[in-house]
Amino acid sequence: MKFRGIEVKIHFSTFAFALLLIATGFIKELIAIFATVFVHECGHIYIAKKLKVEVLQVNIYPFGGIALLDSIVFIRPDLEVLVALAGPMSNIFFAFFGEFISQVLQIDMDYFIKASIAMAFFNLLPGLPLDGGRVLKSVLSYFISLRSAIATAVFSSYAISLVMLYLLLKGIFNWKLNVVYAFLSVLLVVAANKEKKASAFLQMRDLFRKKTEFYKKGLMGVHHIAVLEKETIANVIKSFIPAKYHVIIILDDKFREKYRITETQLFEYAVEHGLYLPIGEIIK
């Protein structure tokens, strides 16, 4: 389905989570959670539009949504940070607004307020695909390759899931709490692995977008990489930093410079001949 021109997909786990809450008698909690998810995603979309970042697709999960953004965020990680933080901040604002309405109209909104705060703080945890993980990935991508930044944030997701499983075992007598922790811990690992698999595609899309931006601005910071001629093109691309334009210095076995190429030349060669040939083949 579409919402304001944006394709919205609901992950099957969301339906499973809804059935789980219904089966355990958490009807009011279910309504509150989906209300907070809606507010959360509206926050992402609103800020993205303000920053002129196109939202291509939104996948709805029980813990929030995953927005597929225009590839400009891979050369402007600061934009992804702002869009990522917009969701949790919207939930926090909603919590304060709910408290205000509760006081003025004398309406019980305690669970809605608690759900909003829980949604905000859970999404700020530093693991993909949570918003905190996107912030971590974006900050790291200034210093290391995009794929390495994603791998680090995914590893953080595994650690968070282990903590959640520990809480599950610690509260073994609280069955209702255990069900939620178990469901979310498994779902977090599944969603994190999905992000990891997409990293190669995101990196290639970044290269296309960076070339376009370079044409528009006419300048970009340069990062030099020295590689042996036997190194594969794929491994060279893995080391690229999104916010930089790269010049690759190709060395022989005695570490003498043989040739220099730009990342545009490297990418064009990779498209034509593949990613797994030695970079020295470009010289030939």
Protein architecture, described:
The protein has 284 residues and is an alpha/beta fold. It has two domains: 2-213, no CATH class; 221-282, CBS domain Like (Alpha-Beta Complex). It contains nine helices and seven strands. The strands form two sheets. It has a four-stranded mixed β-sheet with strand order 1-2-3-4. The protein has a three-stranded mixed β-sheet with strand order 5-6-7. The radius of gyration is 22 Å and the shape is elongated. Belongs to the peptidase M50B family. Its cofactor is Zn(2+). Its EC number is 3.4.24.-. GO terms for molecular function: metal ion binding; metallopeptidase activity.
Shape: elongated
| Beta content | 5-15%
Number of helices: 9
Give, in order, the helices and strands: EEHHEEHHHHHEHEEH
- Overall pLDDT confidence: 80
What is the gyration radius calculated from CA atoms?
22 Å
What structural class is derived from the secondary structure elements?
alpha/beta
What is the rounded distance between the termini? Answer: 51 Å
As laid out across the biggest beta sheet, the strand order is: 1-2-3-4
Let me know the largest β-sheet: 4 strands, mixed
Number of strands: 7
